[in-house]
Amino acid sequence: MKRLARGVEGSSASSPRVEMRRAQLVDAMASTLRRGVVPTTLVDLAKFAEMSTATAYRYYQSLDEVAQAYLVRVMTELRDFDASRPETGRELLRVVSRHWVGMVLEHGPVLVQIRSRRGFFDRLHGKVTSTVRGHEARKRALCGVLAEENLPASMQDDAAMLYNTMFDPRDILDLVNLRGLGADHVTDVLIEAFVGALKGWNLGIRTAESATTKSAAK
Question: Does the chain have fewer CB atoms within 10 Å around its N or its C terminus?
């Protein structure tokens, strides 16, 4: 798998030295989490990065900012991968999802440790950069699947939420490590379940709307 891009939000205006220092802290976080060590403060992370506390605070104000930079790095690669693919619809969804499963197998322990406590819609509508990048990476495929399955385009955000839930790194790792499924098998099973969930979601929404309309008419 190609090396992840080092850029973070706003990096276009940063000098190479600033980007190097930021990347040093992001890499240190990833390295410590892979070893099962969880830094609790930016001071701790600076020690792991062999950087002074004052220098670390020059580039990030909190541990959460470093975690967000790591997620942006990962989701930017996924978005760029999607943009490079010629497929459409379900075929594109399969290719992008398989790439995501591969990324989870490579970066999973870190992704699990720094997963946000906020809900998907809260992060998407709040324009959290990593969530927006992830949404951009899957939007073309999700819209294509909705069209192929004759589901309303208005379900786009709901489809993104369902996908985010079903392709959770924790569950992907469980399916591989505890169920013994291969990466291709995991991808195919989750896509089938996801498409079924889309249809069920649409039916549930229409049923609820119909019931509300009938109740209001009484």
Answer: C
Distances (CA, A) of 55 to 33, 38, 194: 21, 20, 45
Please count the other Cβ atoms lying within 10 Å of the Cβ belonging to residue 128.
Answer: 19
Which tokens hold the place of 183? 């990466």
E-only strand ranges, the chain: none
* Among candidate residues 180, 69, 67, 85, the one with its CA nearest the CA of residue 141: 85
Model's pTM, two decimal places?
Answer: 0.85
- Token duo for residue 72: 């942006």
The amino acid occupying position 194 is F
SS3 22: helix
